[in-house]
Specification:
About 10% of the residues lie in helices and about 15% in strands. A hairpin with a 5-residue loop joins strand 3 and strand 4. It has about 170 residues and is an alpha+beta fold. A two-stranded antiparallel sheet has the order 1-2. The radius of gyration is 36 Å and the shape is elongated. The chain has 2 helices and 4 strands.
Length: about 170
């Protein structure tokens, strides 16, 4: 004996009505012949719980809603551009002041000592980095200039023996 099950066929046309077509199905030994639909074809009422013993949010019926926030921001339009060279920076008075402040801070903190170069050592150059620091509303807070060493020119064991990183460990505090 065979049973017929209506199976909807997906239609690629959005306005067309789906056409359910009955398909002949032979019952399996575990199925009753009196059933008109197969249990595998029915959508589950709820998602089955996993069989593991761990207590999860899904097992406790806790579901977090998906919150999509609008995180778009727009900076205030400014004609200020970060200079890419020292020549361009020196043409602007606010960048000259930022460079002057950086040099004074390096001297005040005793960051380096000027010594004559040894003949067997590599001279490490430096580079100016310019950044515009902005407030949360996009307005300009300050112009920042940093003088950084080109450490990638150094050779370990020849130009330096030790490295130093001023990081405070929580055990020393």
């Amino acid at each position: 004996m065979t049973a017929t099950i209506p199976v909807p066929i997906s239609n690629p046309l959005p306005n067309a009505q789906p056409n359910p077509t009955p398909l002949p199905v032979s019952p399996t030994p575990t199925q009753s012949v009196t059933n008109s639909t197969s249990p595998e074809m029915e959508p589950p009422a709820t998602a089955p719980n996993p069989t593991h013993s761990m207590t999860t949010r899904a097992k406790n019926q806790i579901h977090k809603p998906i919150k999509k926030m609008n995180l778009n921001t727009q900076l205030a339009k400014s004609n200020e551009v970060e200079p890419t060279s020292v020549t361009k920076a020196l043409a602007e008075p606010h960048w000259r002041k930022a460079m002057f402040d950086e040099c004074n801070a390096l001297i005040r903190n005793g960051t380096w000592d000027l010594v004559p170069p040894a003949s067997n050592q590599n001279i490490v150059g430096c580079k100016w980095i310019f950044r515009i620091k902005r407030n949360s509303d996009g307005s300009i807070d300050r112009f920042k200039a940093r003088l950084v060493a080109k450490g990638f020119h150094q050779r370990p064991g020849v130009d330096y023996l030790d490295t130093f990183s001023p990081v405070v460990k929580p055990t020393t505090v």
